[in-house]
Design a protein that fits this description.
This protein has 14 helices and seven strands. The chain is an alpha+beta fold. It has two domains: 162 residues, Hypothetical protein, domain 2 (Endonuclease III, domain 1, Orthogonal Bundle); 124 residues, Alpha-Beta Complex (Nucleoside Triphosphate Pyrophosphohydrolase), CATH 3.90.79. β5 and β6 form a beta hairpin. Bound molecules: iron/sulfur cluster. Iron/sulfur cluster (SF4) binds next to α9 and α12.
Length: 353
């Protein structure tokens, strides 16, 4: 049996029943593929279901209030994905009559849609023979073809894209792409591939030459930089100050307790007092340390020092935030906080984050 047929037969029998596999709606498939980037399937499922309930169509997403959108995304991370979805939905609504384009070239003109997402939407929703290459597909291909080059190198990536493009030609391109991803997720796993159960073992050079776990070859990533910041749960007249980050940049459009990046060697409380003056124009009294939150971003490891205190009188003057609110503590929970800001809030309330 050909490699292609073996993959397709196996996929038909063994694929997991996932919510986005029960639809052919291009919009729903686009949302799922965007959420699944750098995020585990189990994490995505409840977000995907809530998101589609709240924004069931491209038009609904295009008309979404940014705070409402971020509320639905809060906790899923990589928030630029949500902002890009919003921008792209507006373009689809205004320039494409609310219908997602069915070819990769036009899909790629939309904000946030790169080569992978365009290939996934075109093949899964529209049956176009468009390739995809994600971590799972890369692992399967490097093993089947015994590719010993570093997969971080552009030349290796180009070669794998070409191989994926050849393989997808033929019937059921969407299923073929999903079969490759599913095989990587369930059988051809990073540490211990189950070659005995693999439907394409007869075609796999990595297996026949032994030790497929060595592949793919991946050079070490740049070490994440350590950074520190401080934030404050600032109360005045029974209300707490919350601030919103501007729409672009890290955690853009999300709410948090006001705070500041600390300079190297700067003491957290000292830096926070400076930062609160600079960023919200307020002086804090009785600042008490509540603990530290650790959070890992793609290239940074953040230590966030959390304080609780009172705000002296005076108007808020924002610098580097685009909105603020004084809220009762319970009302803070209705604002879209990022995961790290949510942990800080929980800690400031004296709960265990
Ligand atoms: S035979 Fe083993 S190494 Fe090759 S694709 Fe299948 S699971 Fe992966």
């Amino acid at each position: 049996m050909s490699l292609r047929s073996a993959l397709l037969d196996w996929y038909l029998e063994n694929r997991r029943d996932l919510p986005w596999r029960r639809t052919r709606d291009p919009y729903a498939i686009w949302i799922s593929e965007t959420m699944l980037q750098q995020t585990r399937v189990d994490t995505v499922i409840p977000y995907y279901e809530r998101f589609l309930e709240r924004f069931p169509t491209v038009e609904a997403l295009a008309d979404a209030e940014p705070d409402d959108l971020m509320q639905q995304w809060a906790g899923l991370g990589y928030y630029s994905r949500a902002r890009n979805l919003h921008a792209a939905a507006k373009t689809v609504a205004s320039e494409h009559g609310g219908e997602l384009p069915d070819d990769i070239e036009t899909l790629r003109t939309l904000k946030g849609i790169g080569r992978y997402t365009a290939g996934a939407v075109a093949s899964i929703a529209f049956d176009r023979p468009a390739a995809i290459l994600d971590g799972n597909v890369m692992r399967v291909l490097t093993r089947v073809l015994e590719v010993h080059e570093d997969i971080r190198k552009p030349a290796t990536q180009n070669r794998l894209w070409e191989e994926a493009a050849q393989l997808v030609q033929g019937p059921r391109p969407g299923d073929l792409n999903q079969a490759l991803m599913e095989l990587g997720a369930l059988i051809c796993t990073t540490k211990s591939p189950t070659c005995l159960l693999c439907p394409i073992r007869e075609h796999c050079k990595g297996r026949s030459n032994g030790d497929p776990e060595r592949l793919p070859i991946k050079s070490k990533a740049v070490k994440a930089k350590k950074v520190a910041a401080a934030c404050a749960y600032l109360e005045r007249d029974g209300k707490v100050l919350a601030t919103r980050r501007p729409p672009t940049g890290l955690l853009g459009g999300l709410w948090e307790l006001p705070g500041v990046d600390l300079d190297a060697q700067e003491a957290p409380e000292e830096g926070l007092s400076r930062g609160l003056g600079e960023r919200v124009g307020l002086t804090a009294k009785n600042l008490a340390p509540m603990g530290k939150v650790k959070h890992v971003f793609t290239h940074r490891v953040l230590t966030l020092h959390v304080f609780r205190g009172e705000a002296a009188t005076g108007r808020v003057r924002r610098e580097g935030y685009d909105a603020h609110r004084w809220c009762r503590s319970a009302a803070l929970d209705a604002l879209p906080f990022s995961t790290v800001a949510q942990k800080a809030l929980t800690m400031a309330r004296g709960e265990n984050p």
